[in-house]
Design brief:
- With 273 residues, this protein is of the alpha/beta class.
- It folds into three domains: 4-83 and 172-180, Periplasmic binding protein-like II (D-Maltodextrin-Binding Protein, domain 2, 3-Layer(aba) Sandwich); 87-163, D-Maltodextrin-Binding Protein, domain 2 (3-Layer(aba) Sandwich); 191-268, ACT domain (Alpha-Beta Plaits).
- 29% of the residues lie in helices and 34% in strands.
- It has nine helices and 15 strands.
- The strands form three sheets. Strands 1, 2, 3, 4, 5 and 11 form a six-stranded mixed β-sheet that branches. Strands 8-7-9-6-10 form a five-stranded mixed β-sheet. The protein has a four-stranded antiparallel β-sheet with strand order 13-14-12-15, with helices on both faces.
- Helix 1 links the parallel strand 1 and strand 2.
- Helix 6 (130-139) packs parallel to helix 7.
- It is elongated and about 65 Å long.
- The two termini are 32 Å apart.
- It binds prephenic acid.
- Prephenic acid binds at residues 9, 13-15, 53, 56, 62, 84, 105, 107-108, 129-131, 174.
- GO terms for molecular function: prephenate dehydratase activity.
- This is prephenate dehydratase.
- It catalyses: prephenate + H(+) = 3-phenylpyruvate + CO2 + H2O.
- Pfam families: ACT, PDT.
Length: 273
C-alpha cells in the first residue's frame, strides 16, 4: 500500500515537488487547498504524513502553521529545504504590459515584492497555491492574468514564462516540515523543535536562553506566538541544534523544572543546506 501524503496544493506546486522528492513518485498525494485540513487529515489518520511549509528565507514564518502543529498534536519527523525560483507566467503570446493582475500564493507574492514593485498597475491577488493559478489561467484561458509559480508549473499547464527568477534574492529557500501523528524515536537526531511557555517574570526569557546556551544548544530559530487564552502572553517556538544528546536531555529537564511548560514537537536530523 502506498504512503498517503497530505499537502496543500496541486501538481506543480512547491508542496507537490517536496512530496515527490521526499517520498518518491509512487506515494499517494492527498491535495487540499488550505493548511488546516492537511493537519486534520494526519490527526484523523486519513493521511499517513503531511508536508507543510513553515518558513521562507525572504518572506519569513508562516505563523498559523505553528498553531496547527500544536493544536492537532502533530509530530515533526523531518525537515526539507527546497530552493525556490519563481517565474512570472501567462497564456502564450502575451506582453507584460498587457497584464492587469497577478495571482499566487501569498508567500510567493511576498517573495517577489521587489520585482512586482516595478509594475504598480498590476493588481496583486492572493490565491490558493502557485500551481492552481497556472492551471486556472490555462483552463479558463484567462488573458490579462499572470501567475507566479515554478518552471515545472509552466511546463505542466502550458504557460509562457515572461520573467524568470523574480524572487527578491536569487538564493531563496523554503523550509518544509514532515509531520506524522505519532512521535519519532530517533537516536541520530541533532535538532529539536520545542514550545516553551515561560512564566511571565522579568528576565525570564533571558534566563532561559542563557541556560540553553550553557547546555550547548544552538538556537536556529525562535518565534514568539501569542497564548490565545491569555492576552499579551507568549509561548516561544524554538528550533535548537545540539551535538550532545545527553546535554540536550538535561536542558529539557531543567526547562521543565525551572521555567514552565515544555512541549517537544519533534527530534530529528538537521537538513539545513
Ligand atoms: O503555492 C505553492 O506552490 C506552495 O507550495 C506554497 C508555498 C508556501 O506555503 O510558502 C511553498 C513554497 C513557496 O514559499 C511558496 C508557496
Amino acid at each position: 500500500m502506498s504512503l498517503k501524503v497530505a499537502i496543500q496544493g496541486i501538481p506543480g506546486s512547491f508542496h507537490h515537488q517536496v512530496a515527490l522528492l521526499e517520498f518518491g513518485e509512487n506515494c499517494e498525494i492527498i491535495p487540499f487547498s488550505t493548511f488546516e485540513p492537511v493537519a486534520k487529515a494526519v490527526a484523523e489518520e486519513v493521511a499517513d504524513v503531511a508536508v507543510m511549509a513553515i518558513e521562507n528565507s525572504i518572506a519569513g514564518a508562516i505563523l498559523p502553521n505553528y498553531d496547527l502543529i500544536d493544536r492537532y498534536e502533530l509530530h515533526i519527523w523531518d525537515e526539507f529545504y527546497l530552493p525556490i525560483s519563481h517565474q512570472l507566467m501567462a497564456l502564450p503570446g502575451q506582453e507584460i504590459q498587457a497584464l492587469t493582475e497577478v495571482r499566487s500564493h501569498p508567500m510567493a507574492l511576498l517573495q517577489c515584492k521587489q520585482f512586482l514593485g516595478q509594475f504598480p498597475k498590476l493588481a496583486q491577488k492572493d490565491d490558493i497555491d502557485t500551481a492552481t493559478v497556472a492551471k486556472r489561467i490555462q483552463d479558463e484561458k484567462l488573458s490579462g492574468t499572470a501567475a507566479i509559480a515554478s518552471k515545472i508549473a509552466a511546463d505542466i499547464y502550458g504557460l509562457e514564462i515572461l520573467a524568470e527568477d523574480i524572487q527578491t534574492v536569487k538564493n531563496n529557500f523554503t523550509r518544509f516540515i514532515i509531520l506524522r501523528k505519532s512521535p519519532k524515536r530517533s537516536e541520530e537526531a541533532n535538532k529539536a523543535s520545542l514550545k516553551i511557555t515561560i512564566k511571565n517574570e522579568s528576565g525570564g526569557l533571558a534566563k532561559l536562553l542563557t541556560m540553553l546556551a550553557d547546555f550547548g544548544l544552538n538556537l536556529s530559530k525562535i518565534q514568539s506566538i501569542p497564548v490565545m487564552e491569555k492576552p499579551w502572553e507568549y509561548s516561544f517556538f524554538i528550533d535548537a541544534v545540539f551535538e550532545n544528546r545527553e546535554q540536550y536531555k538535561s536542558a529539557m529537564e531543567q526547562v521543565k523544572s525551572d521555567f514552565g511548560d515544555l512541549k517537544i514537537f519533534g527530534e530529528y536530523k538537521s537538513r539545513k543546506p
